[in-house]
Design a protein that fits this description.
503 residues, alpha+beta, five-stranded mixed beta sheet, 15 helices, 32% helix, elongated
């Protein structure tokens, strides 16, 4: 018999209460579990083991690391949930290095599931890992996400230990130190692809890029980074270094990466790396909020830039700047990306847009040659996305356009998204114009994420406004809004790459 004191004050539904649960674990001797931190690991019996293998794999890594650590006693007990078949139990359990409640003891398995993971809406909440201290106190009601995020470094997985690690991560994030981020008590060096050691202190006066790399997921980024490295480091001798952080335990990489695959891929890269399966890999993923799967409405944290002596850091955005601007984007900060985007847009001239030169159609149906809009203020307006912002802007634009017709400050509007039959007073491209292969389409897509937005040109054909979010402040200057050029471009980049994720 093993007595467990359940402290419901930590994540439990009966706050402040304590209760005792007595249960029998066949084939699990009391001396095997006491005085250890014990994990009760619940998994559904299912023929589709792919649904649960990730949580088990992370726990296996922790178990193997702690197995011979006398200072951190640890044990896991597998408890199969559901009726299932004994063959299914055997298939699951054969890959686990720990103990289990026997499949034949269905009474004990059901009792344990009912006590620890019962759910009113779903029957049982599994997979789940219940962490019990060596004094019998429940410290975590489901530690699966903690196992993935912290590995063995989270031992004993108490609330206090996790809060301590979170505090350390926050400090490392906002006050970056290469030693704190990359070194460990056992290691003060990185390796090159020949296996030679390079002391971390040699990087302190350099700009360092941490490359959080998932095998097979970022081929285009790797190629772009190699090109930039060749230009900046090998040719221009810039004080720059890249450090590969080889992610081996994500959904994309777990089970298909090993030290051999690490050396094969790292062997094609000219920079440095953390050793394979180094504990700092998990820490860096936590610190820089690296997702288990890329995608979705969040910035890409694959490249993290740390300035010389930690003078500045760029937690995300570097990969976006690199992919868009190549080596010119160095040091690949969002500020540098904004500067280059502003420079590129300022070079755009109205005459550059029209290749081939178009004929426009006015709302009334009359044809207007391109030469007729020279020396006028011109707004190129593409609004294929019919959202409320664009609808309100178009209504206001039409009002001001009509008001200024025939006056000294009149302007022309070329409405790219306008279709034949729409009641608009301004110009649209002739139906025969090859817009898909045109220069104007290329420029719009280069400036705006989906090619939707407005470009405003003054009477000299110089661009004075570029935005995909045409707000209507400053009534007196509508729709030109002088003085907000860089601000609006900055907002567009933030929206395009989700750069406001941390801010």
């Amino acid at each position: 018999m093993i007595k467990i004191n359940v402290d419901a004050a930590i994540g439990g539904s009966k706050e402040g209460t304590r209760m005792e649960l007595l249960f029998v674990m066949s084939l699990v001797m009391r001396e095997q579990l006491e005085p250890k931190v014990v994990v009760l690991h619940f998994e559904y019996l299912t023929p589709d083991y792919n649904t649960t293998w990730l949580s088990t794999a992370h726990l296996t890594d922790i178990y193997n690391e702690l197995l011979s650590d006398v200072d951190r006693p640890f044990e896991v007990v597998f408890i199969a949930v559901g009726d299932g078949k004994e063959d299914e139990f055997r298939d699951m359990f054969c890959s686990m290095p720990w103990t289990a409640v026997p499949f034949s003891d269905s009474v004990a398995r059901k009792q344990l599931a009912k006590k620890f993971i019962a759910s009113e809406s779903r029957g049982f909440d599994a997979p789940a890992s219940i962490v019990i201290s060596n004094t019998g106190v429940i410290m975590q009601h489901n530690a699966i996400s903690l196992f993935q995020a912290y590995g063995a470094a989270g031992y004993p997985f108490s609330k206090q230990k996790i809060e301590h690690l979170i505090s350390q991560d926050d400090r490392a994030r906002y006050y970056p130190s290469l030693t704190a981020l990359l070194a460990s008590p056992q290691r003060d060096y990185l390796i090159n692809n020949k296996g030679h050691k390079v002391n971390i202190s040699e990087l302190e006066d350099k700009t360092v890029i941490l490359y959080l790399y998932e095998s097979g997921c970022t081929k285009a980024l790797t190629a772009r980074l190699k090109d930039a490295y060749k230009v900046l480091v090998e040719e221009e001798k810039m004080k720059l270094e890249v450090v590969l952080v080889y992610i081996y335990d994500s959904w994309n990489t777990l089970g298909r990466t090993n030290e051999k695959s690490f050396m094969q891929e790292f062997g094609t890269m000219p920079w440095l790396a953390l050793p394979f399966r180094d504990s700092n890999c998990k820490k860096l993923q936590r610190v820089y909020l690296y997702p288990s799967e890329l995608g979705g409405p969040q910035p890409d944290p694959s490249l993290v830039v740390i300035g010389p002596y930690g003078q500045y850091f760029e937690p995300f955005g570097a990969s976006d700047v690199l992919m868009k601007f190549g080596s010119r984007g160095y040091p690949f900060t969002r500020k540098r990306g904004l500067h280059l985007q502003v420079e590129a847009i300022k070079k755009v001239n109205l005459s550059m847009l029209w290749d081939p030169e178009p004929v426009f159609i006015r709302g009334c149906g009359s044809e207007v040659p391109c030469s007729d809009i020279v020396s006028k203020g011109v707004i190129v307006f593409c609004d294929a996305v019919q959202n409320e912002l664009y609808i309100r802007f178009k209504i206001k634009l039409q009002e001001v356009y009509q008001k200024k017709r025939g006056q000294s400050d009149e302007f022309e509007v070329i409405h790219i998204g306008s279709k034949k039959g729409q009641e608009v007073p301004w110009l649209r491209l002739h139906p025969d114009y090859p817009y898909k292969d045109s220069t104007v389409r290329k420029i719009l897509h280069d400036i705006f994420h989906y090619g939707y937005g407005i470009l405003v040109f003054d009477h000299d054909g110089k661009v004075v406004r570029a935005t995909s979010n045409p707000h209507m402040e400053r009534e007196d200057e509508f729709p030109f809004h002088y003085g907000r050029f860089e601000t609006e471009i900055g907002f567009d980049l933030i929206e395009r790459f989700h750069w406001d994720f941390w801010d």
